[in-house]
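Example record

One chain of 663 residues, shown exactly as stored in the release files.
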Amino acid sequence: MVSRKDVMRKLIVNAVVVASVLVALGVVALGVVALGVDSAGLAALAEQPGVVLATEGAGDFVASGSLAESWDAPTDGAAVGELATQIAEYLVGGSPAASGAYPWMTFLVIEDQWGGFSQCGGSLIAPLWVLTAAHCVEDAAAIGTITGRTAAPTSLSDPAFVFAARTVTNAGYVPALFGVGDVALVELREANSAQTINLATPSDSQLYTAGTMATLAGWGVTAVGAPTSPVLLAGEMPIRSSADCTIAYPTFDPTFNTCAGYSGAEATQPVGSCSGDSGGPLFVRSAGTQELMQVGIVSYGVGQCTSLTYPGVYMRVSAFYDGIADFVGGLPAIDAQSPLWSVPADITVEATGSGGAVVNYTATASDNVGVASSSCAPPSGLSFSIGTTTVICTATDAAGNIGTATFKVTITPMPTFVPLTPARVLDTRASARVGSAAGTGTPLTLTLSLFGKAGLPSSGIGAVALNVTVAAGEDPTIGGGFVTVYPCGTSPDASNLNFTTGQTIPNSVIAPLSATGTVCFYVYGTAHLLADVSGYFPAGSGFTSLTPARILNTRNGAKAGNAAGTAAPYVLKVTGQGGVPASGVGAVALNVTVTQTENPTVGGGFVTVYPCGTRPDASNLNFTTGQTIPNSVIAPVSASGEVCFYVYGTTHLLADVSGYFPT
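Predicted structure tokens for this chain:
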């Protein structure tokens, strides 16, 4: 009777990696035999009644009887290549592996029950256990192994052979079906001290991500019809998506299989397994520990050894890990999964002050076995400077795997001033005038709430820009009338507007708001008041508002200026006064008032406020004889903290500060 192996030994190797044989359909089993197969054969297989991919038994393994302690057939010192010419699956496109690079790689020579020999690959996973493909050992009578050596044995009498005691095959293995339970363990008769390879576990799904570069190693033929390689070869190829694999193979089961290989023009020299590589490991490098992890076992394929249409199919090691570990007696739990981060999308916020803004965020790390440590830099709750900062989050698990994630925090500068379309927020002309005609006692104070009005926000306002107008004013009994705009509370000794009976006069005012968003108008005398808002300074912006404070009043001394306009300017130290800091001041917000004015010899009088030094050709106030008139001034400050007042004509000067801008 002619055995199946005898028949297959006569067939030509023509497939990449095939795990089982259905001879009637022209489908091949490689690793011990070779038979050409095409896509039509695969489609026919999928359509056969009762032919399904078995999904049971992945966790169970069944042991064989004892194997022979040596070769049963006479070898007469024959070379391996002479006795094993019908080997399935060999690596094509690889390069010689460096000595010691893959110490777990195992060369298997299998003598079958009919005295034939074949070659497969395997991996040492424990001192007494080698992992390989079930189709490599299903008919084994004796198995010799050599682990950790790059050179292939040249003789069956090689003293390095360690013989197997028995094989253990996955209970779900179906020889007639592709990639079904094609997993086997080979128990050695003596322990091997070589380094073992770590296996992918059920939690290591990220190792199978499409596009991940995987390494395949073996001693197979370097081209279809060529001899086997005398040295261990290794090469890289990408893991393919389950969708790609299912298109290529109707029987592909992503639960128990994975596939890898180049497609199209991805590589000018693609890598693939060929005759002799069956049972060998497909491995990838862990992103965390950078350890090599076995993810697959060479099983089956279609076409030439580096087909760009049909990738090689491998048994998915993670699906069989638990059963392997249970049978072997436990494998070290290898954690190849890096911690994963959940971080926010890029954050953009507006500064709450000149220094930036405090940003709070939530970033969480998780891991399949637990996070040992995690942190983000800069951390949540820190003040971020204006500009863009990259936050780097790093987590480490107990196995030393490191997971990182990044996102950006951008702090945009707070606007110094937010302009608004002018809107009227106060008009008393439909009611009684504000103030007291007697000018004695406590004149009436009008309180106006501005939060949420006329385009203003409901919070976060430091000061508002108002145009305040007095209409139908009446002098008090003593002196001229005036208006003070302030953030409520105690009325300061300052003024923003001065008026006489019957006068209608406006002035621009930078008015600080109280914590509740109110501003108060104190009137000495009586008048109708109108106020239009045209913008605001956000709290904490480049402008710092102050309760108005008088820092200049010359009425107790000589007037400033002279009739010819040749007098020296009046120099006022503004830093350190009225709440203005002693340094770091670029400009101050002043309300400047002239009173008891006298025209110069020629034309009208005027006042120029400037940061000392060379006087500009400009004016802030214009006056005629006997006039009292104010104006709002943003006055730059000199390096020494001074402001100069040049007067063309003569007048007393009053200046009230209501805020400042930093340098």
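Notes: The first helix runs from residue 4 to 8.
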